[in-house]
Amino acid sequence: MKSVKFRLFLSVVILAAGLCYSLPNIPAIGNSFLQGILPSQRINLGLDLKGGMNLTLGVDVEKAIENTLSIMGQGIRERIISEGYSILRPRMADGELEIVVPKKENAAAIRDIIQKWYPNMQLVAENAYNAGSAQGLSLKYVLTDAARKEAENLTLDQVVRTIRNRIDQFGVAEPDIRKQSNNQVQVQLPGLTDTARAIQIVGQTAHLEFRLVRDDVNPSSMVLPAGTSRFPMLDRQGGESTIILDNEVLLTGADIANARPSFDQFGSAYVSLKFSPQGAVTFEKITGDNIKKRLAIVLDGEVYSAPVIQDRIAGGEASISGDFTTDQANDLAVVLRAGSLPAPVSILEERTVGPSLGQESIDSGVLASVVGAVLVLGMMPLFYSFSGLVADILLVGTLSLMFAGLSMFGATLTLPGIAGVVLTIGMAVDANVLIFERIREELRLGMSTAEAIYAGFSRASISIIDSNLTTIIAAIILYQFGTGPIRGFAVTLSLGIIASMFTSVFVCRAIFEWWSERNPDKTLSV
Q: Residue 526 and residue 515: Cα distance in Å, rounded?
C-alpha cells in the first residue's frame, strides 16, 4: 500500500507540474493575473503558424579556411624572424599557404619551427625557388584534416552566432537559426514584416578585409603576378573601376570591437571602426610596415576605399567611406558591430509565409485536435466504463505533460508539430486499450481483480514499450536529418510518446492498484 501511495503522490506532483507549465500557453490564462505566478516559458510558434520569412544560406567555408591560413602566415613569419631566420612574405596560392625560404640550407630548421608551433599545418609540396644568386625553397602548407574539419565547424557556428546577434538587434522575436548539412544555415524569422530589410541585414556578409594595393601592376593587364587578384572598386558617383590587391589578408572584421555611423564635414555618411586591443596592435604594425603604400578596405569582395598610409596609425581606429545613405551606414554598422561573418554567404532559397495563412493553419490544427480529442474522450467511456473515464483523465495529463515539455525546452510548434499533437491523442489511448483488453481477458479466465490488473499491465507493457521505442527511434532519425518543420513534428511526437508511456504504464497502474486495494471485493469495470 505504501508503494502505491508513493507512486500516486509522485504521479500527482508530476502531472501538477505539467499543468503549471502548460497553462501559460492558453492566452486567457497566460495574460491574466496568474501571469506572475505561473512559469514564464511558453511555446514558440513556427514560421508556418505565425507567418514570416525563411532563408537558406550557403556558407563559403573554403574562403574562411583561406583567410585562416593567410592570418596564420603572418604569425609564422613573425615566429621565424624571432628565431633568427628570414622568409619572404607568405602568400596564398590555389588554397595553399606558400612560404618561400631564400636560403635552402635554412629550410630544415624552418620546417621544424613550423611543425613545433603550428602542428595543425601539413606540408604538401616542396619546390626549388630561384632567389637571385642563392637557391631557395618554396614550402606549401594546408591545414590537417582534423584542423580543417574543426575550422569548418567553427565557421558555421560563428555564422549562426553572428546572424543571431544581428537578428536580435534587428528586433525579430523568437528567430530559429540552425546549421544544416552541406555547409548551409537555415534562418526562420516568424512574424517578420519588413522582409527586404531583413534580407539586407541577414544576407549581407559584411566580410571585411584589409589588403595591400599593388600599384606596380596594371589593372588592365591580362596576366597577373602570382599572389594577386583583381577586385572591383566603388567610387562616390556609383561607378566602378578595377584595382589589383595582394591575396594576403592582413586584418579581418573579426578584430572589430565597435562600429557606428558618422558624418564627415560635407554631411556624407561613413562607418567609423574601433578595433579590439589585439586588432589595434596588428593595425598599428600593418600601417607602420607599409608607409606610403595603399591599404584597401574590402567589404564583401568590393573595395570601398584605398587610402595611402601616411604614417603609423595608433589607437586602433579606421573608417569605411562610400556613397552611403544614412540607413545604409546604420545597417552596415549594425552588421559589423554584431560581428563580421567569417566567410561569404549566399541566399540559396527565400520563402515568405503570410500571417493569414499561418492563422488558417492554427485554426485548422486546433479544429483537428479538438475534434479528435472529443471523439476519443467520448468513445472511451462507452467501451470501457470506469476505466475509460480514467483513460480520458490521463489523456488530459498526457497533453499537459507534452505541452509542458515543449514550453520548458523552448521548442517551436509548427504545423507538422500540430499533426504530432493529433497523433499523440490517438496514440495516448492505444496503450490503455491494449492494457484494458488484456485485463478483460484475465478476468474472463477467472482471475481476481488484483491479479488481472497485475497480469494485464505486466504483459501489455512489453508490447507498449517496444512499439513506442521504435517510434521514438524513427522520430530521432527525422530530427537528425529533417528540416525545421519536420524537426518540430519529431520533437512533438517524441514528447507525446514519452508522456503517454508515463501516464498509461505508470500512472494508470498506480490508480488501478490503489482502487483494487481499497475495493478488494469489487470487479474492475473494463
A: 13
CB count within 10 Å of CB 289 equals 12
Beta sheet of 134-143, edge-to-edge order = 91-93, 96-101, 134-143, 121-131
pLDDT of 126 higher than 80: yes
With a pLDDT cut of 70, the percent of the chain lying above it is: 89
Which residues, other chains included, contact 481 with Cβ-Cβ below 8 Å and sequence gap of 6+? none
Measured CA to CA in angstroms, residue 244 lies from 4, 88, 107, 215, 406 at distances of 81, 20, 31, 7, 55
pLDDT tens for 294-319 read 988 887 788 887 888 888 888 778 77
**71 vs 88: CA distance, rounded Å:** 15
As a whole number of Å, the end-to-end CA separation of the chain is 23
Length of the chain: 526
Cα separation of 53 and 163, whole Å? 14
DSSP element (H, E) containing 142:
strand 134-143
Say what the pLDDT of residue 193 is: 64
What is the pLDDT, as a whole number, of residue 28? Answer: 64
**Three-state SS sequence of 239-290:** CEEEEEEECCCCEEHHHEEEEEEEECCCCCEEEEEEECHHHHHHHHHHHHHC
Task: Please tell me the pTM assigned to this model.
Answer: 0.56
Please name the residue that has the C-alpha cell 624572424. 81
pLDDT interval class at 36 (50, 70, 90):
low
What pLDDT does residue 144 have? 92
Please provide the DSSP assignment of 4-70 as one string.
HHHHHHHHHHHHHHHHHHHGGGSHHHHTSGGGGTS----PEE-HHHH-EEEEEEEE-HHHHHHHHHH
381: which residues sit within 8 A by CB, 6+ positions away?
A: 388, 389, 392
> Taking Cα atoms as reference points, which of 14, 12, 32 lies closest to residue 23?
32
Q: Which domains does the chain have, with CATH numbers?
A: 2-50+354-518 (1.20.1640.10), 54-58+148-352 (3.30.1360.200), 63-145 (3.30.70.990)
Whether the pLDDT of residue 134 is over 80: the answer is: no
